[in-house]
Amino acid sequence: MRRLLLALPFALLPLAVAYAHDDHDHEHGSLGAHEHGVGRLNAVLDGQSLELELDSPAMNLVGFEHAATTDADKAKVAAARKQLENPTALFNLPKAAGCVVSSQALKSPLFGDKPEADHDDDDDHDHDHDAKGEHHHDHSEIHAHYQFTCSTPTALSNLDLTQVFKTFPATQKIQVQLIGPSGQQGVDATASAATLKF
């Protein structure tokens, strides 16, 4: 499975370049641009192994991006985390495929993880400031990475994201990179077009 993850960035490179040119002045101008309502999903089906990697602005999943300080905010974060910890239901994988989670990892500043630095820190900690000198925080993202072993992968003819849109209604679109037996495809999934064919 490691080789799939290593190959994925190269497979996505043409797409990243296309997005960089298409993405005028939006955040970092790359595939990783942070846009509310839009998530990203990489899905790789190779033999009996299915790997899903979901990246989403926290706003789409919990309704805010600041650190949860109130009980209500903490409850929203806990609820979202619980839903993300049940990927078999969230991704509506067909029971006939016999997919079981072999590993999963959730990361987000909202879960207490340190945000990944996008730049080198030269020990000068003056982050982004605007013309008024006001400090801007990084947008909070939620990253979920799942690996499944599927006893009957032929039963996985498609990936149904309907439950993701129902569970997290602020998510309007998911940009999907799908790699499966029939090759690679890039698709935008929406609540009304949530089923993708492998």
Automatic annotation (TrEMBL):
Residues 126-140 have a biased composition (Basic and acidic residues). Residues 1-20 form the signal peptide. It comes from Pseudomonas poae. InterPro entries: ZrgA-like. This is Zinc-binding protein. Residues 110-140 are annotated as: Disordered. The keyword Signal applies. Keywords: Signal. Coiled coil: none annotated. The keyword Signal applies.
